[in-house]
Amino acid sequence: MPLFLCRWRYVANSGNFVLVHDEELWESALLHTGRSIPLHAMITSCGRSRAMTLDYSFDGRRRGARRFAVLQYTLRGEGRLNWEGTEHRLLPGDLMVAAIPHDHRYEFPGGAPWMFVYVCLTGSEAMRAVDAALAGGPVIRLEHSSRLLDLMHETLGFTKAVVAGTYADPGRDDRAFRASALAYSIAMELLAVARIRRAEAHHVETTRSAQRLMRERCDRQIGVADLAAELGLSRSHFTRLFTATAGISPRAFLERVRIERAVDLLYNTCAPIKQIAVECGYVDAGYFTKAFLRCTGETPRTFRRNRM
C-alpha cells in the first residue's frame, strides 16, 4: 500500500458510514444500498491527503473499467502528471482533472510532501462535465476563492459531519441525495470553468491573429476598425478583448509594431525619414516623428545620428 496520510476520507458504495482504520490511513466509507431512484452524479470518495513516498502512483489504465473522475487540488508541495505522454507539474493552486480509465499516471515525484484535497465523481452527468473540462487540458489553475474549490471543501465538510455523527439526516435517502447534489454542483461549476477556459482560449487566438495581421500590414493604412471587421467583431468588443488579453490596447500595439519596424529601417538602411514613415504606415512624416519620439524618447533623425 502506498504510504500517504489521509485525515478523513469517504468512499461511496451502498448503505451506512463505516470507519476503516489502518496504521497509515484513516478512512471512512459511505455505502448506499437502498436507493430507490438512480443518481446521475455521485461522489465516490473524497479526502485531504498527503503523499510522502515514491510509492504514491496511480495508473489511469489500471483502475478498472467503470468510468469515474478524480479532481485533485494541490495545497502544498508538488505532484506530477503524465497525460498521454505529456508531463505536467502539479503545483499549489493547480487542480488536476483525470477521467478513468484513460492513458495517464499521476504520482509523487519526491521532495517535500505533496498535500492535496480530492473529490472523485461518477455518473453520466458528472462525466459529461469532466469530459468538457478535459477538452481544455487536465490541469486547471484555481484561485483560493474559486467556487469549485469551495464546493470541494463543502463536500469534505459534509462527509466529516456524517462520520462524526453530527449531520442531521431527515430521511433514509437524504445523505445520498445530499452527496449527489454536491456532485451535481461540482459538475456544473466544472462546466462553467470549462466554458471560461474555452472563451479565454478563443480570446488568445483572436488576439494572436490580430497581432499577426498588424505585423504583416503595419506598412499599410489600417486601423483598429479594419482589424475588428476582418476578425468579425465590433470595434468596441475587439478593443476590450484585445486589451484584456494582451495588456495593451490594439492602437498602442499597432504603434509599437510600426515603431519597431522604423527602428530596424533606421539602423539598417539609408532611406530618408519620409520614406521610412510611409513604409511604417504613416502618411504624415511629422506625425511619424511625434510617434517615434513618444515611444523612444528621441526623434528618428537623432536616433539614427546617435547610432551611426
Characteristic terms for this protein:
Jelly Rolls; Arc Repressor Mutant, subunit A; 3 domains; alpha+beta; 8-stranded mixed β-sheet; disordered N terminus; 4-stranded antiparallel β-sheet; elongated; 308 residues; 9 helices
- Shape, per Cα inertia axes: elongated
SSE-based structural type: alpha+beta
Number of separate domains: 3
Number of alpha- plus pi-helical segments: 9
**What is the name of the CATH class of the largest domain?**
Mainly Beta
Descriptive account of the structure:
The protein has about 300 residues and is an alpha+beta fold. The chain contains 9 helices and 12 strands. It has helices at about 125-135, 145-165, 175-215, 225-230, 235-245, 250-270, 275-280, 285-295, 300-305, and strands at about 5-10, 15-20, 25-30, 40-50, 55-60, 70-75, 80-85, 85-90, 95-100, 105, 115-120, 140. The radius of gyration is 28 Å and the shape is elongated. The relative contact order is 0.10.
Brief overview:
The chain is α+β, with helices and mostly antiparallel strands. 44% of the residues lie in helices and 24% in strands.
